[in-house]
Amino acid sequence: MRRGRGWAGLLLVVAVLITGGAVTVAAYDIVDDGEDRYAGQVMDRYAAELSAAVGDRAARYTETVSDLAAAVGAQSDLRGDDFVRMTATLDGARLPGAAGISFVVAATGPEVPALQRFWRARGASELKLLPATGTSTHDFVVFERTFDSVTNIVGVDLAQRPQAGEALRTAQASGRTAISPAYYLIRDDNLAPGARQTSISFVAPVYSGLGSSAPDVFRGWIVMPVRGQDFVARTLHDRGQGAVQTSLAEGTGAHAVLATAAPGRRVADESLVRQRALTVGQRHWELTLWPTTRLINATDRGMSRFTLAAGAALTVLLCLMTAVLTGSRNRALLQVDQATTALRKDIARREDVEARLREREQELHHLAFHDPLTGLANRLLFYDRLTHAVATRGRTGGRLAVLFIDLDGFKEVNDRLGHNAGDLVLRTVGDRLRTSLRAADTVARFGGDEFAVILEDIESPADARSAAERVIAGVRAPIDVNGEEARVSASIGIAVSDRDSTADDLVGQADAAMYAAKNAGKNRYVAT
Fold first, then answer.
1. Class at the top of the CATH hierarchy for domain 78-299
2. Which end of the chain offers a freer environment for a tag, N or C, measured as fewer CB atoms within 10 Å?
3. Is the pTM of this model over 0.85?
4. Residue 91 burial by Cβ neighbours in a 10 Å radius (0-12, 13-18, 19+)
5. Structural domain boundaries in the chain
6. Cα dist. 305→25, 94, 311, 413 in Å?
7. In the predicted structure, residue 528 carries a pLDDT above the cut 90
8. What are the beta bridge partners of residue 105?
9. Would you say residue 213 has pLDDT above 70?
10. For the chain, what percentages of helix, strand and coil (3-state, to nearest 5) are there?
């Protein structure tokens, strides 16, 4: 009998251990999934912004060579001083990475002497054409404006670089600007190997007779060689904000890297790596982004580990309590003469343990779904409520809105008064958000100085704008921090649901609107 009671107690402890472990793992998975989803959304946002920035930079260079090609084509008798005048406003400051800009003409071997005399008579007095060997067609630089101290290449035959020749033929055949494959510039041949950069050339065909009744006549090309790293490295670094490492490569698969930006320390998480394909100048580029520890730290990734540790500690505590209770019960059964007293003590002890279990469960639930600093809902609870609100709206036909809030000036408060002051400001802002909104509205902190709000059952978009105005007025009031005055303001993006809106749609639209409010001057709201 005694042995049977001993085995029963051991099985009970094992059951508590298994149940507590299962609950802890489930809570960890839920919080970890929420953290992964948010980090993925941040990486998607950086990928979109950097892709657009690289595309804009390439479009500006394409427009430059196209405009110059049109201007050259408009000259009935192009001369060297005309080319100098047309390129006078171009330099390396306006076109980072550009080595220079050239006018290139084609010729066959027998045509070289006549071509040299022709262009010498038109301002290139010292022109000496240097045909490349092994090719029947030559592409000579006759006019050039250099943007750096590297030797110019007037008279050089670009046919010695197959990549440059490919771009020239593509531009001539299509009548549009083309970009060459990656290669090392001829002008950089005298540099040390470590000083050379993988480069590209923007090429625009030059035609005369455009806009007239006469047939268009091909005259040559405008060529702008660009060193890849200088071309977009600063753009990749500045737009990445140190949160991502980036690589811009020519083509896909086995390809040449044009530019990289590698701040911070890369995180080995393949699920967060993002790749975007770009088509510029009739060529394909690939932009790859990796997360760094700065991005991971900014997304509060430690909450899942805290949940796991807290759950494990609680489970161990429950097992110990269960073992103690089981031993007490067995001793009570063996002491028949004290059975009544022991039973009453055991019942009281059980009730106390159950109360503490409920308290621990409530604490664990609160930790899993609330921000520990402000007490507001966290991202996980926010997405849960937003998903439920969207589904409910689909059945009832009601409307809802999402406000995405980012504090203006919070970094300056942290830098000037310290992180303790920053925590006080965040708690105060959280309290002001609660008082500025209805009790039924969900207010959440996403991390750092980002907050989000769900407004359910609104009559019209005007209700969302009124709520945003109240929030802006409440947040910008001064905050007393140990006798020092701290001021922050709020930039707010508003997304109002329509019939087909999803939770991710509303968050994405509100996030984009918030950045529009930032760019418009801060301390305001923008509604999509």
1. alpha beta
2. N
3. no
4. middle
5. 2-40+300-369, 78-299, 379-527
6. 11, 49, 10, 29
7. no
8. 140
9. no
10. 50, 25, 25
402 forms bridges with which residues in the sheet?
A: 454, 495
Q: How many residues does the chain have?
A: 528
The pair of structure tokens assigned to 42 is 């941040």
Distances (CA, A) of 428 to 171, 480, 486: 61, 10, 11
Distance CA 276, CA 370 (A): 35
Report how far Cα 209 is from the mean position of its chain's Cα atoms: 46
Exposed e or buried b for every residue in 180-209, given b needs 16+ CB within 10 A? bbbbbbbbbeeeeeeeebbbbbbbbbbbbe
Contacts of 299 (CB under 8 A, 6+ apart): 35, 38, 39, 42, 447
Q: Tell me the CA end-to-end span of the chain in Å, nearest whole number.
A: 73
| Residue 357: exposure state from Cβ atoms within 10 A (0-12, 13-18, ≥19) | middle
Segment holding 365, helix H or strand E:
helix 339-369
CATH 3.30.70.270 fits 379-527, yes or no: yes
For 219, the 3-state DSSP assignment is: strand
Amino acid found at 19:
T
Query: Using one digit for the tens of pLDDT, what is the confidence trace for 97-124?
Result: 999 999 999 999 999 999 999 999 999 9
pLDDT tens digits, residue range 311-367?
788 878 877 877 777 776 667 556 655 666 776 887 778 877 777 878 787 777 778
Residue 443's nearest CA partner among 454, 435, 432 is 454
Nearest-CA neighbor of 83 among 135, 144, 41, 125?
A: 144
Contact between 48 and 289 (Cβ < 8 Å): no
- Measured distance CA(424)–CA(431) in Å, rounded: 11
Q: Are 71 and 77 in contact (CB under 8 A)?
A: no
266 and 245 in contact (C-beta within 8 Å)? Answer: yes
For helices 303-334 and 339-369, the axis angle rounded to 10 degrees is 170
